[in-house]
Specification:
Blueprint lengths: L2 E5 L3 H12 L3 E5 L11 E6 L2 E6 L5 E2 L4 H8 L6 E2 L8 E5 L2 E4 L4 E2 L2 E2 L2 H6 L5 H8 L15 H9 L1 H16 L8 H4 L1 H10 L2 H11 L2 H8 L1 E2 L5 E4 L3 H9 L6 E2 L2 E8 L5 E7 L5 E6 L1 E4 L3 H8 L4 H8 L3 E12 L11 E3 L10 E4 H4 L8 E9 L11 H16 L7 E12 L5 H12 L5 E3 L9 H13 L3
Parallel strand pairs: 1-2, 1-17, 2-13, 7-19, 9-11, 17-23
Antiparallel strand pairs: 3-4, 5-12, 6-12, 7-8, 9-10, 14-15, 15-16, 18-21, 18-22, 19-20, 20-21
């Protein structure tokens, strides 16, 4: 049994601790904030005898990547998770000031149903013909990384990129497509081009396999909703279950100020209790930094300046979420969906709007609908210079224009996430490989989190499992 310190009580840190505890190690988790969750949090707000269940960050996760769902099953919590509602399983995109469904079978950037591409009003005739010509565009010959914009324009044409790919990518990664790395963010499409020479030809090849996964991709409108799940009681409830085995070894309001490597090979932590101001020193056999990379870099600066520099070179974006509780009967029927996205060229104030209560049951009282409007990110960072009230007003104006709402919100709240989303710029895969190479020189050190191999919850769980395995 080893004594391991996990620094950071976000989902990655808690999952790392859960795996380590399951392996019989003594695990201590240190978290500077007064709560667990990191960029995940759930609010339960009262409303006339009922309540709103509001997700301030991620509200679900995909099961196509198995790591998160495997962890749920290992915890024995399958019955506590639900799948998306059957109604309104579409995503919409703003086009010339109106909402239109994303073409069926257009999954991230892969067209799988040519009929829906030809029928969509989102693209011009020239734009549609350019998408269909993708099957004949020569494949890239080298392994050099490129931006999402470069890849999508090269394969699908600029109009499809601007009207469909760019807003989808912006909604997921809060990133600028001209800097976002294909190899890091969307490696599956790089493989499709390499193996099949074309995204369309790859879709036809998969169709012949007739797997359930591929049928879902062909039927999806922007997202494969049957491959998502969420806890009935919210994401914070699940994180609480992950934290339960720790007991008093979960140290909230404890900031790690200094990390040291002792000559004996173990690690020293200088920890400050933010409530009392007391400082103490502790020693551990190993340390996992489940932190934003810039915070991990700060702690490693006196141990390995080159490694710290690599970690601090990963940029982050900030964002805000305007949460609005609205009258459901005021939504235009044709606008009901799981969410909408907006291309940059539409010059909207919101990157995306999620109809949270349409996706999952039990999120709000009957007759009410919860919308979450996502603002800022690397796409429009200047938005975050505005006050909370200004952002709420802009979000409501957007909802009025796109969805037809008239009555002011029953409830509203502005959530800000400062430097919360890592930016996978071109060359990110190589950058992370170098970071790992440097980190491997320090025995008993693990790095984990969404800065490295994926921003989604399944990728964070995979990162946690890999980190825990370093101490076995």
């Amino acid at each position: 049994m080893k004594r391991i310190a996990v620094i950071g009580a976000g989902i990655t840190g808690l999952a790392t601790a859960w795996y380590l505890h399951s392996d019989g190690h003594e695990v201590h988790v240190f978290e500077a904030q007064d709560r667990i969750g990191g960029v995940i949090d759930t609010l339960v707000e009262p409303s006339s005898g009922e309540s709103y269940l509001i997700e301030c960050g991620a509200d679900n996760f995909a099961t196509l990547m198995p790591e998160a769902w495997d962890l749920v099953r290992q915890m024995g919590l399958e019955s506590e998770f639900i799948t998306p509602n059957q109604d309104y399983r579409i995503a919409q995109v703003v086009c010339r000031g109106r909402l239109y469904p994303i073409p069926n079978g257009f999954s991230l950037m892969q067209p799988t149903r040519m009929g829906s591409i030809l029928a969509t009003p989102i693209l011009s005739v020239a734009g549609k013909l350019r998408v269909l010509r993708e099957a004949f565009v020569p494949a890239k010959r080298d392994d050099q990384d490129e931006s999402v914009e470069s890849f999508a324009v090269r394969r699908l044409g600029r109009e499809c990129f601007e009207r469909l790919v760019e807003p989808i990518v912006g909604g997921i990664f809060t990133a600028k497509a001209d800097r976002l790395s294909m190899q890091a963010a969307m490696p599956q499409f790089v493989r499709m081009e390499r193996e099949h020479g074309s995204l369309i030809r790859a879709a036809f090849a998969k169709r012949r396999q007739q797997s359930a996964e591929n049928r879902s991709a062909r039927e999806a409108s922007g997202a494969r909703y049957d491959q998502f799940t969420a806890p009935k009681l919210g994401m914070k409830w699940w994180l609480g279950k992950l934290a339960e085995p720790l007991g008093d070894r979960l140290h909230l309001n404890h900031r790690v100020e200094l990390l040291e490597r002792h000559l004996e090979g173990d690690w020293g932590l200088q920890v400050v209790d933010r409530l009392s101001g007391a400082t103490r020193h502790e020693r551990f056999d190993g340390v996992c930094l489940a932190l934003p990379s810039y915070s991990a870099g700060r702690l490693l600066r006196n141990i390995d300046g080159v490694l710290a520099g690599g970690l601090e070179s990963i940029e982050y974006a900030s964002s805000a979420i305007a949460v609005l509780a609205l009258r459901r009967d005021e939504i235009r029927p044709e606008s009901l969906c799981f969410g909408s996205i907006a291309p940059t060229k539409e010059d909207r104030n919101c990157l995306a709007i999620s109809l949270s209560s349409e996706k999952y049951a039990g999120r709000c009282p009957e007759g009410t609908l919860i919308m979450r409007a996502f603002m800022g990110g690397a796409v429009r960072p200047q938005m975050l210079d505005r006050s909370d009230q200004e952002l709420l007003e802009l979000a409501f104006a957007e909802v009025q224009a796109l969805f037809g709402v008239r009555t002011k919100p029953h409830y509203q709240r502005l959530v800000r996430w400062e430097r919360a989303m890592p930016q996978y710029h071109v060359g990110h895969v190589q950058r992370v490989a170098r970071i790992r190479e440097l980190a491997a020189k320090h025995s008993g050190l693990a790095l984990a989190g969404n800065a490295y191999d994926g921003v989604g919850i399944p990728q964070c769980i995979r990162s946690a499992k890999q980190a825990a395995s370093k101490f076995s």
